[in-house]
Amino acid sequence: MRAGNLFVVSGPSGAGKGTLVARLLEAVPDSWVSVSATTRAPRAGEVDGVSYYFLDRDEFLRRADEDGFLEWAEYAGNCYGTPRSSVEQKMAEGKQVILEIDVQGAFQIKEKIPEAHLVFIEPPSMEVLEARLRGRGTEADDVIEKRMQAARLELFQKMRYDKRLVNDDLDSAVAELVDYVNAQAEKPQGL
């Protein structure tokens, strides 16, 4: 059995994190993606324990007070967090645990679990990023501009990550991410 590891994947909206993580899960049999907890109401089709763990605000804050989250934050009046117990359990089982979270959350996790591997996914250029966001056809111009501003700020943090990966060619980016995860999983414990 390989050693369990924690991989935190961050990057701007539109960089392709979700696609890369989905392909990673297909390519690495012992990988597992963490399910976040939230106080927001479920959307149509979302399933508790699969999409998110849906908690009321009091329960979420109680768990936060008891250090039940590796990281958490509040966005637009709702709380989101990474449950500590499920991540630690899966790592103990030898899983390659994948978290797809923002830069601030990544650094919170690195403080609590210094051996976590931070992976930053970046677009080939800001122009490509904007084209990807516009190509979705799901967001208004003002939302896209906010995402572009956030991307510029996130890109300033990329040098603090253990691995930086430019998602220019999807197959190459997937191969690079899979190689990185496998290399970390094959290292002897404690290295």
TrEMBL record:
<dbReference type="Pfam" id="PF00625">
    <property type="entry name" value="Guanylate_kin"/>
</dbReference>
<dbReference type="GO" id="GO:0004385">
    <property type="term" value="F:GMP kinase activity"/>
</dbReference>
<dbReference type="InterPro" id="IPR027417">
    <property type="entry name" value="P-loop_NTPase"/>
</dbReference>
<keyword id="KW-0547">Nucleotide-binding</keyword>
<keyword id="KW-0963">Cytoplasm</keyword>
<keyword id="KW-0418">Kinase</keyword>
<dbReference type="GO" id="GO:0005829">
    <property type="term" value="C:cytosol"/>
</dbReference>
<protein>
    <recommendedName>
        <fullName>Guanylate kinase</fullName>
        <ecNumber>2.7.4.8</ecNumber>
    </recommendedName>
</protein>
<dbReference type="InterPro" id="IPR020590">
    <property type="entry name" value="Guanylate_kinase_CS"/>
</dbReference>
<comment type="function">
    <text>Essential for recycling GMP and indirectly, cGMP.</text>
</comment>
<dbReference type="InterPro" id="IPR017665">
    <property type="entry name" value="Guanylate_kinase"/>
</dbReference>
<dbReference type="InterPro" id="IPR008144">
    <property type="entry name" value="Guanylate_kin-like_dom"/>
</dbReference>
<dbReference type="InterPro" id="IPR008145">
    <property type="entry name" value="GK/Ca_channel_bsu"/>
</dbReference>
<feature type="domain" description="Guanylate kinase-like">
    <location>
        <begin position="4"/>
        <end position="182"/>
    </location>
</feature>
<dbReference type="GO" id="GO:0005524">
    <property type="term" value="F:ATP binding"/>
</dbReference>
<keyword id="KW-0067">ATP-binding</keyword>
<comment type="similarity">
    <text>Belongs to the guanylate kinase family.</text>
</comment>
<feature type="binding site">
    <location>
        <begin position="11"/>
        <end position="18"/>
    </location>
    <ligand>
        <name>ATP</name>
    </ligand>
</feature>
<keyword id="KW-0808">Transferase</keyword>
